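Changelog note: in this version the structure field was regenerated for every chain. One regenerated record is shown below for reference.
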Amino acid sequence: MTAVTTAPADPGVRVRGGPPRPGGGLRAWLYLLPSAAVLLPLFGYPLYMLGLLSVFDYRQAQVSGGRPTRFVGFGNYATLLGDGRFWSVLGQTLVFAAALVVATLAVGAVLAVVLTRAGRVPRLLLSLAAMAAWAAPAMTGSTVWMFLFDADLGLVNQVLGIEGFNWFYDRWLAFGVVGATVVWHSFPFVMVTLYAGIQAIPGSVLEAAALDGASAWHTFWRVVVPMLRPLITIVVIQSIIWDFKIFTQIYVMTNGGGIAGQNTVLNVYAYQTAFGSSEYGLGSAIGVIMTLILLAVTLFYIRALHRSGEKL
């Protein structure tokens, strides 16, 4: 009988079917230490200062040293929660961000499927066009789109034969144009991510679905989408964060929030409060509320996935 020798198992590796070996969790945390050493100060200190300013009466007089800084506790938050304007802007921001997330995910997913079915040259051209949109600075893209929809010189009005029509006069048309600009900037990330996920799906899985008589539509929803759910989770969370804190497109294209502030979103409102009215403590409180909302939405979404049995 031939003796079989086996190498000793790594104490930090978990053997399939067996209990986790000691040291595995510690090793994982050690791997995260270099990134944590950079990211924690980079993000932690600004968040700390944001929270600190939000509990003080901090205005231009305090910045210039004319008056002492006064601790107000949750006074800034109480002011915001009792302000009808804040609630109106918050609701408008939530609806606008939700619409952008859905539109970005839909456009990116459709184009990812198109990439898998397109020929080599069309796939290359579509990828290059998407990368150009993704690489374009938000300021540049917003200016180009604003010029396209200009009331007098815009290409869109000339093509449609409606010269002199102001797309930014009506609240919802302005949100539509700005939303199209945001989706144009955002869909390449979704498209590339989902395309890579589709390409990673084993061909045998799709062949098995075809042999079982599943149509292309059923294969996509019953096979492809469940296998892409971890990637979809990533792009959804990223889209929520990006679209909820949108600033540049709204501020540039609607000239600071539209007519009478009808297109103001929460990030623009925080900027106007802090730097327009010199209410730095109140503006910081808006920033803290935005951070807490994003954190709550992200944790809720991840928890819902874990309850459904999905793993990230």
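Spot check on this record: The beta strands are 56-57, 70-71. The radius of gyration is 25 Å.
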